[in-house]
Design a protein that fits this description.
556 residues; mainly alpha; two-stranded antiparallel sheet; elongated
Length: 556
């Protein structure tokens, strides 16, 4: 039946209750068509939020399509796929193991570049849209900058180096942002806070470094409330809001640790010393002080040097200097031009003082860890906050319209330019990854050809490769890669003990029985092996006692 242009379904309800009264009740249940439901839902989404999403997709494809449409690998991709998802509960990543095991049972954990890449990019784009919505971003240009930055920041490139795990890592990013979104969007409702705690605990249980995303969003909101709230907002309310955010972060951390202990016992595994995660939350006062120092040092390095490949060239350094300049000038503007209680201005200064700790929270979380690119994603919120801060500043501080317009122009051009710089850098990194692949395959193909050309060789002979690295003076990656695109997560060459068997078997299709470590140790004692030259010199590949021996380096 049609009523007022709407599709509706009618049903007649008969029951003893109604029959007793001689009544018949007609109930109408409206069932919207999929098209109508999606159209109505789409209309409710603010334009800036949509812009953030589509900008993330557009700039993300500009950056990562190279990786999505080619089968490129890094060292872990070689060793772990197609069966695995990375290190699990033994490194504190119990949700990764739980979810990874579930997906493996249904689909297998295959590293499918296009599918994994698009799924991951979609989750990052949704995260960008949530950030734009949480902070009520109105400018489409600024929303586009947020989406672009969150999709092309170098840690995302590093994430796609580990393509087999990218869907899990991007899900962790999404969980961390969604948890913060729920807390910011529904400040007076308990259920969203409980859901936020669970989501953030699961994010921690997938990749601990993304915990900092939530911390950044909370600090950003507190700074904005302190700087631009109306006079009716009391300092006490801001303090209580901060306490509420701390409670969510603490509850999520406690839930994560409790669930971690539960799954360790359930699966009967022990923590390993991987990136200091076995000692997370355990540190001396001296270690804590050193970790806090590293947070502020990293902020400085963004504009002055190299830190986790987050600002890899001098052009990035200059851009970050301009970012700091804009922040500095606008903070002074808030302090002297914004009317309001002085205590709120103190809160603003305090918020900016602790912001570096939130951005680089990985240091206090795990002071013994070697922080590399993948762990630095939270630093993107420095640039995200810039566009949010400038928009709110221009909305709340009274000064000439031309000055406000100029501030927005400078910020928009700066952030979009940085997006394009990261697009360029990401493409360069994937190019470098491909050159490494060409180098690896060419080198090992020559080696396999020589093995098969040995006099007396049979396909039943086991193979023993002696030496972790190579000592080949002719082995050089050349100038095509250089040092510019030296992003963490890629080695100049995968000709090493960790990766070589996987390359030879999975990519060259040569699958002999490789000798065990114990067998190699015994072979190394043989005088004939000790006297062998190192590859690629003549005689570096020989048959010794029915075993094909390839000697790569000298040893004691």
């Amino acid at each position: 039946m049609k009523e007022k242009g709407r599709h509706a379904a009618f049903c007649r309800v008969d029951s003893p209750f109604y029959k007793k009264r001689g009544k018949k009740v007609e109930a109408m249940i409206e069932i919207k068509t999929p098209d109508r439901f999606l159209l109505e839902w789409w209309k409710k989404i603010p334009a800036a939020v949509k812009t953030a999403f589509f900008a993330a997709i557009l700039f993300g494809l500009m950056t990562h399509l190279y990786q999505f449409t080619n089968k490129l690998y890094n060292y872990d991709e070689l060793a772990i796929t197609p069966a695995g998802y990375g290190i699990g509960a033994e490194a504190g990543r119990w949700f990764l193991q739980l979810f990874g095991g579930y997906t493996a049972s249904w689909f297998g954990n295959y590293s499918l570049p296009l599918l994994n890449g698009l799924m991951s990019l979609f989750l990052v784009a949704v995260s960008a849209a949530l950030v734009a919505d949480a902070f009520h971003v109105k400018s489409r240009i600024f929303a586009a900058a947020i989406g672009g930055l969150m999709a092309v920041f170098t840690p995302v490139v590093c994430m796609f180096y580990f393509m087999y795990a990218a869907p899990f890592y991007s899900l962790a990013i999404f969980f961390s942002v969604l948890s913060s979104y729920l807390v910011l969007k529904y400040p007076k409702k308990l259920l969203p806070h409980l859901i936020a705690v669970v989501l953030l605990a699961c994010s921690l249980g997938t990749y601990q470094a993304y915990y900092a995303n939530a911390a950044c969003m909370f600090v950003m909101h507190l700074i904005l409330v302190s700087a631009f709230s109306d006079e009716g907002t009391k300092a006490k309310e801001i303090v209580l809001t901060g306490v509420r955010y701390l409670a969510v972060l603490a509850a999520a951390l406690i839930a994560y640790l409790l669930l971690h202990k539960f799954f360790l016992a359930l699966w009967d595994v022990q923590m390993v010393n991987y990136q200091g995660m076995d000692s997370m939350g355990q540190m001396t006062a001296e270690q804590l002080l050193g970790a806090l120092k590293n947070c502020f040092w990293s902020m400085k390095q963004l504009a002055a040097g190299h830190i986790m490949s987050l600002s890899p060239t001098r052009l990035f350094h200059r851009a970050f200097k301009l970012v700091y300049l804009i922040f500095g000038v606008s903070i002074v503007g808030v302090l002297f031009l914004k009317k309001g209680a002085w205590i709120k201005k103190v809160f603003v200064l305090f918020g900016f003082a602790i912001f570096p700790v939130a951005l680089f929270l990985i240091y206090p979380m795990s002071p013994g860890a070697w922080a590399y690119t993948l762990m630095g994603y939270a630093a993107v919120f420095l640039l995200v906050f810039l566009v949010i801060w400038v928009e709110k500043f221009c909305e709340n501080i009274t000064f000439r319209q031309s000055v406000a317009a100029l501030a927005q122009w400078v910020t928009a051009l700066l952030t979009i330019s940085m997006v394009l710089l990261y697009v360029w850098y990401g493409n360069g990194c994937y190019m470098a990854l491909e050159y490494t692949k060409y180098h690896d395959l060419a080198y090992y193909q020559t080696m396999v050809t020589q093995i098969k050309s040995l006099e007396g060789y049979t396909d039943e002979m086991p193979v023993a490769i002696i030496g972790n690295e190579i000592s080949d003076a002719t082995n050089n990656m050349g100038s095509m890669v250089g040092s510019t695109f030296g992003l963490d997560g890629r080695t100049e060459s995968n000709i090493n003990a960790y990766s070589r068997n996987s390359i030879i078997t999975k990519y060259l299709g040569f699958a002999p029985r490789f000798c065990s470590y114990e067998e190699i140790v015994e072979l190394m004692k043989e005088e004939v092996v000790r006297k062998m030259p190192c590859y690629p010199d003549e005689g570096a590949i020989q048959i010794v006692d029915g075993v094909v021996v390839i000697k790569l380096t000298e040893y004691e």
